Amino acid sequence: MAKRSSKSPAVKPSAGSLSRTAYFNRELSWLAFNRRVLEQAQNERHPLLERVRFLAIVCSNLDEFFEIRVAGLIQQVDSGVTESSLDGLGAREQLRRIHSVVASLVDGQYKCWRQQLIPALAAENILIRTVDDLTEAELAWVTTYFHEQIYPVLTPLALDQSHPFPQLGNKTLNVAVSLDNPETPENEKLVAILPVPRILPRLVAVAPTKTGPQSYLFLSDIIKLCAGEFFSGYKVNGAYSFRVTRNSDLYIDEEEAENLLKKIEEELRNLRRGAAVRLEIDDGVQDHIFETLCDHLELSQEYVFRLNGPINLLRLVSLAELDRPDLKYPPFLPVNVSPLHDTGRIFDTIRKQDVMLHHPYDAFTPVVDFVEQAARDPKVFAIKQTLYRTSGDSPIVQALIEASRNGKQVTALVELKARFDEANNIQWARQLEEAGVHVVYGLIGHKTHCKLCLVVRLEGKRMRHYAHLGTGNYNPRTARLYTDLSYFTYRAKITGDVANVFNALTGFGRAPTFRHLLVAPYNLHRRINELIAREARNAAAGRPAQIIAKMNSLVDKATIDSLYAASQAGVKINLIVRGICCLVPGVKGLSENIRVRSIVGRYLEHARVFYFENSTGNEPLIYAGSADWMSRNFFRRIEVLFPIEAPEIRAWIIKEMLPIEQQDNVNSRVLHANGAYLPRARRPGEPDFSAQAYFVASAYQRAQAHRTELAPVGPTKEAKP
């Protein structure tokens, strides 16, 4: 149903210009991606607790979608903005279609939970109970638990003339209670709210046992059962859990902000009072409570979702963390057998050869080792580092602090506006500054999204540069969950450009020059479109022409139009786009030479890799880096794509990485011209093939084959899933 709602008619555009129907809607395309995540929760091929985790991810994704994207559209409607989206839809029409698709998606979520996951969990002795299911002994245990663990923490808030409507936190659990005074003849329909602090566990093990089946009850059910304890002398007519989602998009006028760090801290506090953009509430809620909440939150009913199940399925993550390895993916420990495994010789190794790591199959350890060794090496004089998102106990940050205390010049570009990581990054910025690190926040009006580390080392009488460039964040935790590339090099032409990037970010540089890197907002958009156009000219001239591009999102209209022109010229274009894709593939006369697939599996596909056949007597061009093909990446972020020139790494990308991902018939879905994502067509008898399983197997093979010697740069060809 959601797929049908997200279709954009794909017809050949009229001559001279492209029709609006040549593009998919960005918001509906994103919802189609979240539908693919839901399909993983519904897929019995995955271990049971991993399916629970996928369901939680769907909820988390929807939360962010409402906090940012839906909130932005509502603001457009309220402010009278008439600008249309890429496919010609106005904000109001987009909201109407979004509601239809989200309603279907939410319905699918809760059916999956009730009809598939709860019975499957029960079959594995993990029982999700309701109050009506409990025995007398269990009810007694729950009542005791309530009085000991819950009652002392909660504060009831009445709603009447002397008690204003409370400020409810973003995405916090609340219970609305309907009350009557039994001594008055009229039905007063009093309402009180019980806000639930985040610290309380949302899923409670009932009378925990070490053996046998374990029963779980949602915290909201316990509170609703015992709500009368807070209202002595009143009759409880009903209790209903709900939560409010608020606009969480920061608006910062950087040119007017004298202190960006303090301004962002102030705005983070203001977000608690952001406008409501969604209400989720128990199905069956009484009308007067429903109307009271909608009135006070100033929400119309299209932003309200009545749920037949627990509020906030993200809290199911606690189930996924149960100690049941039989219900999870087989554990995989990333291998550390790259040429950089000898930490004492990191700089010697990089000086001799470029090194590429493929996370999470290759360990993130060498990236941390690179910064830690630089911090301790007496020959290293300076370290320059970008930080967009990092972990709570970041070894990278600790290494930078150590380097500064060791007397090295350390510069950190901390992106304070990394969405939902603002508070963490403010904390890191302060710690780094206290240690003497030069902390800067990049260019006004641009997020610093590139992943760069530059080490300056005295060798003989000359200063030499070593660089790490990546597609993912400097975060050891997400490096185990995201597929990304890490590239280490000593090549002067690359490290020189990296130094220029840092100089442009820390100083004044209106028009910096980059000879080898593609850097947004300076030359990235222009160069990408030039490379696409060159492939079109090659195809038109009868020369081989091909483009393979792997990214998270494809939205930029000019780039999509360039791809359409290349397709019409005969260029074979294969796109691996995990999330949003506004390009319509497979339309005769427009995009019949373009194929789009999305891979959603155990790991989040996050690497960006771009291949241009460039068959004009030169070798194909290969770039990797931090940038998707979106307007924000091209024009409002600092992004870097770097060329891959080492023969061994190029061979691995061309002959293995990209072909393997295109062979996937398990986790990949092919985008069709009607907007549907369908499994890849298979040949008769074709076996299952998962690219992610292949790379896991390859990592194991490399670890086994090279326990006493250095591993090759790329995975071996013999690996099988």
Summarize this structure briefly.
With 721 residues, the chain is an alpha/beta fold. A hairpin with a 5-residue loop joins strand 26 and strand 27.
Structural overview:
The protein is α/β, with parallel strands linked by helices. Among the domains are: 174 residues, Endonuclease Chain A (Endonuclease, Chain A, 2-Layer Sandwich); 165 residues, Endonuclease, Chain A (2-Layer Sandwich). Helix content is 36%, strand content 21%. It is built from 19 helices and 27 strands. The strands form four sheets. Strands 14, 18, 19, 20, 21, 23, 24, 25, 26 and 27 form a ten-stranded mixed sheet that branches. Strands 10, 11, 12, 13, 15, 16, 17 and 22 form an eight-stranded mixed sheet that branches. A hairpin with a 2-residue loop joins β15 and β16. The N terminus and C terminus are likely disordered.
Mean pLDDT score, rounded? Answer: 89
CATH architect. name of the domain at 343-516: 2-Layer Sandwich
Output the CATH class name of the domain at 343-516. Answer: Alpha Beta
Q: Could you please say which CATH topology of the domain at 343-516 applies here? A: Endonuclease, Chain A
- What overall geometry do the principal axes of the alpha carbons give? globular
Straight-line distance between termini: 33 Å
